[in-house]
Amino acid sequence: MEKYLDQLAKAPPAAKFGGLAALVVMLTVANFFMAIQPTEENIARRNADRRKLDLELAEKSEIAQNLNERRREMDVLEQKLAEALTELPERRDMEELLAQINDIGKKSGLEIARVEPGKEFINGTEFFARIPIKMTVSGNYHEIAMFLQEMANMRRIVNVNNIKLDGATLKNEKVVLQSSFLATTFRFVEKKSVESPPKKRK
């Protein structure tokens, strides 16, 4: 480069001008290939990487949003399932049920003379088992009616039928009736546990 500059200094003015122009062109081209072009390529590469990262971030955000929605849906379903299992539990839970019935009897002011749970049974291909409970209580008409109403309002499903009222007696200036009835509660049964009746052989 120094040799070229010495020759350029000794050259006539026209040659100097042409040489300077050529030198400027050479430096511009060299600057483009050595500095500007690599910088533009680097910027283009970075922009491409950024667009790729933006797309990945958008995809991940969408997945996360869908996951949160699925989790919220699962929470709602689990809550509904818990409520359904309260009304139709998977287990007999007879001790808990009988304790609740006993509390209702005390609050109603009557006496529970008999509580006799029976054997559960499944009717055909139903998805629930029936658990019969034979009961006998004594109290006035209002107390018995209140007791039956409170049983109907229990979270667990309990049906009462075959109600009989008899044996009216006077006790402490109160007409006391004896009532017997059949209370039926239910338990959820999975289909696989419901045995199909055996086929008759020809």
UniProtKB/TrEMBL annotation:
A Pfam match: PilO
Transmembrane parts of this sequence: 17-36
UniProt keyword annotation of Transmembrane present: yes
Keyword annotations: Coiled coil, Membrane, Transmembrane, Transmembrane helix
Coiled-coil parts of chain: 50-87
Biological-process GO terms, alphabetical: type IV pilus assembly; type IV pilus-dependent motility
Name of protein: Pilus assembly protein PilO
